[in-house]
Amino acid sequence: MSANESNKDRIYAERIERVGGFVFDESVAEVFDDMIRRSVPGYAMTLSLMPLIAKRYAQPNTNIYDLGCSLGAGLVAIADGLPDSVSLVGIDNSQPMLDRCEENLSKSIPDCNWSLQCTDILDASIENASIVLLNFTIQFIPLEQRLSLLQAIASGLNPGGVLLLSEKVQFENPKTQQDLFDLHHDFKRENGYSDLEISQKRASLENVLIPETIEAHKTRLAQAGFDHCEVWLQCFNFVSMIAIKA
Ligand code: GEK
Question: Which of 123, 125, 139 has the alpha carbon at shortest distance from 40?
């Protein structure tokens, strides 16, 4: 098998008798880059535009966190052009993800000051931060713990700091919800996933990935202590938001 084939996501390609809940284990980490690019509309664009935001908000001598950093794509994307004095901190509770993340950062940003922590983001200590990335990760946190996580982020950010939050979202209007859900599935089909793969993956994410509305995110961000919050990118039912601490 070529390297490319071995990193192609085929996890749900064969029929599985009983689909279990989705976990970020070795088999997922191995194909994760392919999985997220073929599953999340706008992922590449989010990564390509985040550096513009990061350059504007990064403050010298501060920490920049990526919570749920997976393979480190967010940190690699924003690293170029930041002040030399920033420290990049990637946090994830999946060791298989972090093993690959370490390889990626060593190769892609060897001269930056970065470190990785294998821990639950709910236990992470966030301090002296100018930017926090939370891309497609709060959706995996139990609903009742999301506010305290955002409060910890808001209180760890310096004045003028920002949270960049990306998420799968849902819509209150049933037609909008159905249309954007269908478009997301069209996107996955277009990217080579079969109907079987799409339906088995959906079953595995049931009760594991819990999306909310954009309004629910905005309300919680305000409650957590953010002063301004706006969507800066939306592709079907996936959004990227910026939340600013004044
Ligand atoms: C990217 N941001 O490429 N504590 C720490 N890590 C966690 C927790 C937790 N409680 N729950 C989940 N994770 C990345 C993509 S993926 C999104 C993020 C997705 C980690 C989990 O191990 C995984 O690496 C990541 O959050 C979510 O831009 O798979 O859709």
Answer: 139
Handedness of CA 53, 231, 181, 135 (dihedral sign): positive
3-state secondary structure 75-114: HHHHHCCCCCCCEEEEEECCHHHHHHHHHHHHHHCCCCCE
Ligand 1 interacting residues, C-beta cut-off 6 A? 24, 36, 68-70, 73-74, 92-94, 97, 120-122, 135-137, 140-141
Backbone angles phi, psi at 67, to 5 degrees: -90, 120
Q: How far is the CA of 137 from the centre of ligand 1 (A)?
A: 5
- Segment 138-181, tens digit of pLDDT: 999 999 999 999 999 999 999 999 999 999 999 999 999 999 99
Domain extent listing, the chain: 43-170+209-244
Q: Looking at this protein, which amino acid is placed at residue 234?
A: Q
Q: Considering only CA atoms, which residue is closest to atom 20 of ligand 1? A: 68
43-170+209-244 — its CATH code? Answer: 3.40.50.150
Q: What is the pLDDT of residue 5?
A: 74
